[in-house]
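Dear U.,

For the methods section draft, I wanted the exact inputs and outputs in one place so we can describe them consistently. I've listed the two proteins in the order they'll appear in the manuscript figures. Please don't edit the token lines directly; just add comments below if something needs changing.

First protein:
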Amino acid sequence: MEETSVFEKFELQLDQTARDFLKETAKWAYILSIIGYVGIGLMLLLAVFAGSIFSSMGSAMPGMGGLGGSFGIIMAFVYVFIAAIYFFPIYYLNKFAVNAKRAFRDNDSEALTNALGYLKSHYKFIGILMLAIMVLYGLIFVVAILGALLGR
């Protein structure tokens, strides 16, 4: 005979305070996601104009060396790359907010489960991105120290 543990029988209930906290979190998440989408749009717009702006600056400045006019294309690519990375956490945050709002409006526990799944994805992406940036900073630090030691 199989015995079920207390944890398998446990069902989480949200009291009114927890519901209010989640509703307010969803509202703020929605506002932040809209601001994030606007930021992505501005970044892409800047990428379009950065190509021409930095190309003209690179051609006008003799100290640019071999980059010259192609510096604008490099900067445009950098802005598009950053906007692409920035898109995913903003998308997950928006999906969390939309699903959480719908869950409380329609009293739909499946929508709340989906919302919390998107919130998990948001934080997972941010965590992995943070680890990647920390590793990149560590590599830059090591290369800088090696460059200083070898440059003596």
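Second protein (the one for the lower panel):
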Amino acid sequence: MRALLIFAIFIPSVNLMAAIGTAAVLYGSGQGILAGWASLGMLAAFVQYTERAFQPIRNLAERYTVLQSAMAASERIFGVLDTPEEIRDPEHPVALPRPVRGEIEFRDVVFGYDPAEPVLKGINLHIPAGQAVAIVGATGAGKSSLVALLARFYDVQQGGIFLDGVDIRHLAQHELRRHVAAVPQDPVCFSGTIASNIRLHSQEMSVERMRWAAELVNAAVFIEQFPDGYDHEVRERGSNLSVGQRQLLAFARALAFNPEVLLILDEATSSVDTATEALIQDALARMLRGRTSIVIAHRLSTIQHVDRIVVLHQGQIVEDGSHAELLAQRGFYHRLYHLQFAEEVGR
């Protein structure tokens, strides 16, 4: 805004001065022509001289505004770079017991982006190793916050989260995230090849492992349709791929690193066609098999493969059980299920 204000004042001021100068030359030269001591040629020359005199000032003004914009941008950049880290590794991190099983436990977890307004209030949840759990609830219930805490994007204000009996705050972040993979709702793609997007430029991952992951989540279906296959060029943010293709690519990337715990945030099947949605559903079923998984679900049709459903309401767990058990309770899940079923029938 400061750069725009300077630009809005400086450039018109220079143009006004140039106009006043030109008017003064025209007036003076006009008087000279009438008095006989000036000619039309002299008038034309001095008008041109005036224009040439103000052109460098205009250029300087433009450069000054560019400089102001650059300074404003640099302030924002250095503001980001100078932001202190809120999530820090412990001085003496501990290691997870081997082999990593993927058992998760939330103990009296309280968390809020503003500590005065907690989003999660006393969450107690135990997820045995290898179990697939869906978290459902209305918008704002705290589903995504619960998963973000497990990946340690934020730290809890009270309580603790344990992976195989170890508080995740006692682990190095790279150690935690080597065993916990997250698939976001809006998958991130980088400029490069499809292979580099799956491998994330890891030199340790073999081509066979990469291809296995792509085939397991049905990403190979569309990858092999490209003339150059896994060497197909991906533009920035995956702009030359569809939403469904980016989602399958994100699944392949997560599975290629073989994490013990898989987090799937807010599935994005509502904006894809029926055939692609079927591929994504099949990929989800394959990914969840045999590993601890937490799926954030908005569309209840996407959680048919899970072992257990946890219902959040206003930051608290209100129901926990299988699909049939929760429907029989005729509570929050029963209401959510029938509301969504009515919406789908209405469409």
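Candidate sentences for the figure legend, describing the second protein: The chain has a mean pLDDT of 83. The chain is about 45% helix and 15% strand.

Thanks,
Y.
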